[in-house]
Amino acid sequence: MFSGMLVGDGYVSNRKNGFGYTTYSISLFNTKRELVELFYNLHFDLFGEKGKIGCRKRKGRKDLYQFFKYSKISFDYVVNDLGIPYGKKAAKVRIPKIILESKEDIVKLYFFLGLLITDGFVNKKGVIGFHMASKNLLIDLNKLITCLWGFDKEVKTVIQKKKYFSYQLNLNKGESKRILSDIFFAAIA
Questions:
Q1: SS3 24
Q2: Please, are residues 34 and 26 in contact by the beta-carbon 8 Å criterion?
Q3: 19 CB neighbour count, 10 Å cutoff
Q4: Are 127 and 175 in contact (CB under 8 A)?
Q5: Which residue stretches of 48-104 are H helix?
Q6: Is 47 a residue whose pLDDT tops 80?
């Protein structure tokens, strides 16, 4: 779930501080504090390092919560082992190969759940969807969905204001119901 959440709403950075030293950080941003706290706990479970949770008040908008941790250990794992890019990742991020090639379906299922709760949605009718800047991420997600549930979905291109490209992958109501049921039963198992 950690890697799915990081791919969805995370940010990985290796910037220079005011003294010329490189700092390595992992962040997660979300308007739901409970998701940021979940990520905090997952990070601690994986790396044994406590991060910080902050809140940014935004006039006329929901508060934005942030998990933040300076850590070369978690940075190296995320970038080198998972292959999640640092810096602006929205258009180039993909599902880590270690997830896609895992023989354990539960690994794929928890990645899917992490991505769903951060960057996906379930509408009022119970339909799951994803709308993102990375076409390749959604192509990878379709492979993961096909592997787990046998649904082969189309990745649709959306053009906004006649110049901005984004991509969508949507499941139908029956497919969504099956996936949500599998996630529920995996969580209680």
A1: strand
A2: no
A3: 6
A4: no
A5: 72-76, 97-100
A6: yes
